[in-house]
Design brief:
- With about 280 residues, the protein is mainly alpha-helical.
- It has 14 helices and seven strands.
- The strands form three sheets. Strands 5-7-6 form a three-stranded mixed beta sheet. It has a two-stranded antiparallel sheet with strand order 1-2.
- Helix 5 runs parallel beside helix 13, helix 6 packs antiparallel against helix 12 (about 200-215) and helix 7 packs across helix 10 (about 180-190).
- The radius of gyration is 21 Å and the shape is globular.
Length: about 280
């Protein structure tokens, strides 16, 4: 099952249906969204009801913290910013991540049962897995994905080959090139979360533990979150990776490192210039 911001839908696979590869084919996030975009139905649920459902699951203090930080807004669709409202109507979306960095949940496009999964998806899109796991943790996770995918016949191998068959941009790349491709690895991880076998791997369970610890550090109650719930969060993180790649953005942690490097280079250049002036004096 895929549980993203379009609700829970049945996950289907074909064998050898793409590029004649004979590999299991995993539908991408984009294809799922396009195929099932109109699944969101209008409801009569109020923002207060959605908030109450979220507070019951995540804790009142956690939801209040997200709202105070400007990360979460729960509104009726008619009260959303116009650009988001139009996009939501076009896509049939029940939640969207705005250009202002705010996750908008449209109360009258979801049920109280849907709300926790929607929020996890939007949290994933806001923060991204790298920030949640930390640079070292995300680095280890990527190495695990690459190592597991080398075992032919494994669920990780099927996800890896399926994503390669799905995208022409990946089809002609070597496995060593793909091992360093952030978006590709996000796609493989998302594909693992699209079926029960993938969610039963040690990789997925370790990620579940790490993400729950991170969410708890933000003041959210997490005892109820399981392997399937994390699929929502991974789906959101995939969207963030795609958005950042399209915009040419650098992850915050990497940006800090780059700024520090550039600063050192500038200081070094200034010292060299001072020395040159002194030598010429």
């Amino acid at each position: 099952m895929i549980q993203g911001d379009i609700g829970a839908i049945e996950f289907t696979r074909d064998t050898g249906s793409k590029a004649g590869s004979g590999a299991e084919y995993f539908y991408s996030a984009q294809e799922v969204k396009a195929k099932f975009a109109k699944d969101a139905k209008s409801t009569s649920v109020s923002p207060a009801e959605i908030r109450a459902a979220l507070s019951e699951r995540f804790g009142e203090s956690g939801i209040k913290a997200l709202e105070s930080a400007g990360i979460l807004k729960i509104v009726r669709l008619k009260d959303a910013p116009e650009a988001l409202r139009v996009l939501a109507e076009e896509q049939g979306a029940s939640a969207l991540y705005g250009a202002d960095g705010v996750a908008y949940l449209f109360s009258d496009r979801m049920t109280t049962e849907d709300a926790p999964g929607k929020l996890l998806h939007e949290i994933g899109e806001h923060y991204g897995l790298e920030r949640m796991l930390g640079a070292d943790g995300w680095g280890r996770m990527k190495k695990r994905i690459v190592a597991m995918a080398k075992a032919k016949g494994s669920v990780a191998y099927g996800a890896w080959e399926g994503v390669k068959a799905n995208y022409t941009e990946f089809a002609n790349k070597s496995d060593s090139e793909l091992a360093g491709n952030e978006r590709f690895l996000h796609e493989v991880l998302a594909a693992l979360g699209e079926n029960k076998a993938g969610m039963q791997t040690s990789l997925w369970r370790e990620m579940l533990a790490a993400v729950k610890a991170w969410l708890a550090s933000k003041g959210l109650l997490v005892d109820w979150i399981n392997e399937g719930d994390i699929a929502n969060l991974v789906s959101g993180s995939l969207k963030k990776a795609m958005r950042d790649a399209e915009a040419g953005l650098v992850a915050p942690e990497k940006m800090e490192s780059l700024v520090e490097t550039y600063f050192r280079q500038i200081v070094s250049a200034m010292k060299a210039a001072d020395q040159l002036i002194e030598d010429c004096a």
